[in-house]
Structures are given as structure tokens and as C-alpha cells.
Amino acid sequence: MKPVIHYLTTAAAIADAAAHFATCPRIGLDLEFDDNRYRYGRHLALAQVWDGREAYLIDPLPLEPNMAVGLEPLFEVCRNPAVAKVFHSCKSDILLLDELFGVHCRNIVDTSVQFSMLAAEDNNISLGRLIQDEMGIAVDKGEQKSNWLKRPLTEAQKEYAANDVIYLFDLADKLANRLADMGRAHWAEEENAALETVRFGRDETRPWAKNASKFKITPDEMPMFRELYMLRDTVARTLDRPAYHVMSNEAVADFARRPLTTTTQLRNTNGLHPELKREPYASQLLALATAELAPDGPLPGERRGPGFRRRLSGPAAHRAEARETLLLALKAHLVADHSAVLANMVLSNRLIAEVLELGTVAALRPWQQQLLRETADAHGHPYESLAAPFA
Q1: Alpha carbons 349 and 300: distance in angstroms, whole number
Q2: Checking CA distances to 151, which of 64, 102, 284, 378 falls within 20 to 30 Å?
Q3: Low-confidence stretches of the chain (pLDDT beneath 70)
Q4: What does pTM read for this prediction?
Q5: CATH number belonging to the domain at 5-197, selected among 3.30.565.10, 3.90.1200.10, 3.30.420.10, 3.50.50.60
């Protein structure tokens, strides 16, 4: 029997529902949002809540331009540590809540985190696959990439959205029982607690740098790449269109290497939004070819300088090498004693580099430290030498 699905579109209805959610020990939660697919920027399109019996689809679009005010009762529940929030793969959702509304969820239970602590062959599992594997239910995911900003929502979209939350309690309980049987319940608790500290990065001063690195833009090409990127962003914001609809990433890289210089070139170039071929943007685009552009900073990979190991010499370098050798030996033991998946969760290449410099206490969660200590003890290795930062 399908559960009742409530479709809420007013601030009053949302406030009443949130008052009910605040009395629940836990709620299932998911968000549908547009990430530069149909509009400029990121936009919340729908919030889905499950109370264990009924599903609630909360439509934020009718609340504009006071969306944050209308959703505040729901946000209060998100912040309330007395109510557990059960998600699947929540990082994108909690980053969006922070970015758009400054909301930080408390008491998170993420079923993808629970599953990852099982250290199965495929840690990055979709919700549909997890429902199929754990509950034997095939869920239609055909609406996953539909336009969630378009109204009215179809019945298929509503059913898809509800399916994203109505199975979360059963999944969380099944996975919690499996983790408890394996003695790993506290592993998931530690990882879920860490999600409360996830924040959206607002301090990116050079947003073009990531794409520049991807397209191997040279230092000489960087000023042009930067100006094209920023002009594209200005037009996209004005039109409320995704930036790639205005000029593709590939086109930005191509024009950084071979700038457009004439109106004929501009008029005959495909793949540009028509607004770029009109004033005032057409003149701005063509003027870049002859402008004196300020130099740009280094690419991200160049900015960090030499790695920790490469900064050492003499006896310190030998001690660091011995420390890294010990970590690699422990990782090999983790593979043999448990699995390659679990070994990589405890000592990935990134974590090895962090432990090498910072020590296990600063770099690893308590469950990782415990497992690493047990492995070191079992194989006669000196774990204590890894606990503190490299001297």
C-alpha cells in the first residue's frame, strides 16, 4: 500500500508540518535542487520529509521571494539535535542548505555512510541500488534528471520524490543492525557526527582556477581565460541561465588560446549565446584580444609548493621515509586482514600523507586510530610512533 503523500505549498502548511516533525524522534529528509542545469546558480526546488507513516513534499517555489522565511520552521527542525535526520548521501544537501540559507543540520544519520562502514566492494552506492539490494524493491529512478524547477510537478516526479525518503528508516535500521553485528556501529556514528561540521566554501577568490587546471591553461593564457570566465558569468547571471549555456567550458579554453578579434569571427562562431553577439557584451568580448590584462596567480597545483616529504633533507628525510614505510606496511596488513576497501578507508594515499605529517591523532577518526592500533599490535609494529606529528 502506497503511503499518503502531502504536497505543501504555503508557509502556514509548512509551519504546521514542521511542528509535527519536531515531535518525531527522527525524520527522513531529502532535497531536490537545480545545480546550474536549468538556471544560473543553485536553487532549492523541493524538500521531501518522511515521518515513518506519511510523506511530505514541501514546495519552496511558491514562497518566493521570502523562501527562507517560509521554510524557517523546517530549518528549525534541521537544527534540532533531538530529531534525527535520516538522509542518503547527504553532503550535497547539507552544503546547499548552508550555501543558500546558512542552515546547519544536527544529528545526521546517512545511510550511505552506514553502508560505507560495511566496507563492501562498492562503497559509492546509489539509493535505488541500496533499496534493491537491502529490501528487494525496484524503485523507478527515471525522474532523477528532470527539471525540478518546472511547475506543475508531474505525478511521476512526486512519486519519485517520495520514494527518496519513504525507505530511509528501514534502510537505516537494517544497516545499523549489520554494523552492530560487526562491532562497527560507533564507526558510523563518528562519521555521521563529522557531517555536522561540513560547510560550504565561500572564500573561493579565483573560481576560474579549477577549470583552468582541467584544460591545462598556461600562465600566459590565464589572464584571458579569467576575463572570459568572468564575462560569461556576468551574462549567465543576467539571463538567469547556466553558464555553459552562454559559453561552454571548452569554448572558454579555446578562446583563451585563440581570442576572437573581429565582428565577423564573433558572428560566425557557433556555440555562443546570442546575447554575447549583441552590445554591450560583443564589444567587451572583442576588446579582450587587445586589452592589457593583469597577470593571474598560479594554478592550484602550483600554489601548494613541494610536498611535505620533498621539503625534508638529511636525517629528517630518512625518518619520514621510515614513517611512510611503516604506514604502507600497515596498509598491506589491513588489506590481508580485512579488505582493500577497508584498508583504503583507513589509509588512503591522502590519509597516509596527512598521518605522515600530522600524526594519527590529528589525521584520523577514533575508529580509524583504533583499527590501526589493533593492526600494528597484531603484527608487532610500533603504533605509538605514528600518533604524534612528525617532529
Answers
A1: 19
A2: 102
A3: 202-204, 298-306
A4: 0.90
A5: 3.30.420.10
